[in-house]
Every structure is written in structure tokens, then in C-alpha cells.
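Field reference: "sequence" (input) and "structure" (output). Example, 2-polyprenylphenol 6-hydroxylase:
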Amino acid sequence: MRGPHNIWRLIRTGATFQRTGAMNAVLDAFDTPASVRFVARTLAMPFTFLGYAGDTGMPPVTRALTALGPAYIKFGQILSTRPDVVGDEMALQLRVLQDKLPPFPVSTAKAEVESELGMPVDRMFSEFSEPVAAASIAQVHRARLAVSGEEVAVKVLRPGIEKAFRKDIDAFYLAASVIDFCSPGSRRLRPLDVIEHFDGVVQGELDLRLESSSAAEFAANTEKDEGFQLPRIKWEYSARRVMTLGWADGVPMGDNAAIDAAGHDRILLGDRVLQLFLNHALRDGYFHADMHQGNLKVAPNGNIVAYDFGIMGHIDEYTRRVYAEILYGFIRRDYKRVAEVHFEAGYVPADKDVDEFARALRAVGEPIFGMDASKISMGRLLSYLFEVTERFGMETRTELILLQRTMVVVEGVARSLNPQINIWQVASPIVSDYIAQTIGPRAALRDFAKTARVMARFGPRLPALVENALIRQGNPEPPQKDRGLFRWVLGAVILGLTIGISGSLTLILVDLALF
């Protein structure tokens, strides 16, 4: 239930950070100005006794986030992939949030499995291990199917996780409402829309039937991707709170020493993980939106193995083209085109100056080129981007939240494998290929063919639809005896116009394609 009672939750959040020592660690990691440090500490200090103590054996920030609950843990998981933003030490501390959280008892997991699947665990599995990984929402057990002897992973939701997430997200809604009311300048970021979007994503993650469906669709899309593989879903052993899939052998993506010991090329893996994400996002419009190290392995054959499909991203074809053109413009250093794409897509208000916006984008993009990637401060870069977007009145695009967030996470994974990686050089061939296939005369011809097929499908209904529209606008209904003739003439006119326009555009597009 959303309401003022969540103020208590927000107060305890600040108090927990103060009590665990996480406040100072976070302020240091983000190089916070002295004035902000003073205000934060002054506000939190009187309420320190209200904060959760957490596990004293954990580092301060990890201790605070785990004490506060699953939504905060999710936030920490994202930061763990960005050592360039929070520093190597904190990133290492936060990495335990990915799959090494305290587990719940195996007896509880077995009870959940039996309740969901409707039969004793011993009849379904000849082996069922203690938890091998425990994350914020669920934990995983290694098991063996009694029927076939195949090794599988059984994912089980944490008891009471739905209620815990609801409590956190309700507090986030209140915080977003306060920001929206008290800070008009922040409204362009649409904080309420952002939280609503996050809420929807989380609700989908809490139903493992949806995750199983996502995994199956993702597997179908990526079946031919070289160097990439996914475990298969076992539908007969999956339900709302339980999901069973094939066991994935391999080295954890976050363990560089083990990757090196296994003889894998980390530079190649860094390039591949970034290119795979771009391919899935641009080519398919359907991508793994939680690609941190805890959800990735390196198989013995060198393939990247992905699992945990609770958060998947989807973007429509138009948005993919806009995103690709923006990336392509930065890669080519064509900032004027990048600015124009922002205006054409409605991302920047039309009353702003496109040339001035292009100059601002140049100031963002130019430092990236010709530099050692390890010397680029993504924290300062993102800070400057925020200033630019605020200056030009850009609003947060909720449909791109997952895409933007995942791009940050994937870049962090790639950089952890190869600190010298240049994201623009690695992305260039994927984005260029997508641009070549989707933008230009041949792509326009394919788009028109799709439109013609849709029109042909609905062609028989067009006369009746137009007639009904005219009637609703107050035009007199044609006499019954003339209605058949009316429809015939109207259909002939529409068909003629369709054929004429189709023919003209086709000739123009073919002519363009030839040149």
C-alpha cells in the first residue's frame, strides 16, 4: 500500500547507511562535494539508532544493502559491474550480491518444489543438493532427474519475496513522488514513470513461468549465435515459483583468475559479450537485461553461457533504428546527425537549437576517441551527459530504461575482462551492419512490402470501416439499395489508390536501390 507510512522506510534507509558505515563509503566512492556530505550526515545522524545492524561480517555497503532488502540488493548488483564508477574495492565488495547471499534451508526449498509441482521431490529428482547460488529473489540447487539422469538446475523463489519487494517498491514510489513535488527540475526525469517501469519488471521476475517463457524465446532467437549458448528449460518440472533447466558447466564470468587458468582469452570474451548484447538488442529487439557476472559463465569450449532470464528487455523496431543511428553517429563522430536523430525522434523539444545540441554532443563524444579507454572516467562522462540533457530539456525515455541500464552493466562486464576495451571500436561492426540492413533503399522497400501485406489483409474491411466512420461523424447513411454500390465504388477507389501509390513508390525505391 502506497502512502505516507513509507516515510518510515526511507528514514530507516538513511539510518541503516549511517549505522553500518556505508554512508561514508558511498560518499567517498562517488567523490561527493563537501557540502553534500555535510547535509547527508547531518540528516542521517539523529536517526542512526533506527538503522538495521546487518551482518557485521560483511563490508559496509554490502551489509547495508542486504539488510535493507531485495530491491536495494538489485541496485547493488548493477553497481558491482562498474568499477570505473564506484572503484575497484567497492565493486569487489558488491559482487557478493550477485549470487552469494545467505541461502534459505534446503528443506524449505524442497517443500516449495513439492507444493508447486504436486509430487514428492524424491520421485522427480534422484539427487537434490544444498543451495549452490543464492541471489536476491531466488536460489539455485543442483539436481538430477530421476527419469533420465540428466543434471539440472532447480531455481526456487525465496519465501515471502513478493511481500518484501512490495514493501521496498512502495517506499520508492513515495520517494519518487516527493522528488516530483519538491524538485520541478527533476520532473523531466519522470521519476514516477521510472519506478512504475521497475515495478512492472520486478513483478514479471517474481513469476518463474514468465521467466521460462522468456528463456525459450531467447533460445530460439540466439540458436545460431556463434560463441553463445543457453541451458534448455524443462517445462514439466517448472511452475510459478519453481523453474528447472539444464545444468550449465563453466567458469564464473567474474573470476578472472579461473578464466585465465582455463586458458580462455579474456580480451576476446570482453569483445564478444558486448557484441552479443548489441546483436540481441538491435537484431532481435529482445535481450537479456540482467547480464552481470553472476548470470554468465564461460563454458569449457569457450562459449559464453547466460542464465537467469527473469529480466528481459524488448524494444520495437522503430526505437531500435533510432538507437542504432545515435550509436552509429557517435562512432562516425557525426554529431550533427546524432542531434538530428534526437530531434526527429522527439527526444529533444523542437524549440531547441539543433546545432547547439550537436556542439554539446561533440563535447561528450570527442574525449572518447584517441584515448586509452582505461583513462576515461565514465563517472565524469555520465555527469556531463546529465548536465547536457538537463540543459536541453530531454525527458527520461521509460521504454529505453532497460536498454540503457543493460548497456551500462554489459560495458562493466566487458571492462572487468579487459580494462583496455574501447566500446566504440568493438560496437562499430555490429552497429554498422545493422544500419546497412535496416536503413536505406532496400530496407525501405522491405518496410513498404510489410505495409502492403497489412493493407491487403484488411482490404475487404476498409469500405465498411470508412462507411461507419462517416456515419459516426453525422453523415447520412446511404439508402439500403445503394449500400452495395457504395461499398463497391469505395472499395474500387481504395484499391486503385493503393495500387497507384504502391507502384509509384516501388519504382522509386527500386531506382534508388540500383544506385
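The first strand starts at residue 125 and ends at 134.
The first helix runs from residue 7 to 20.
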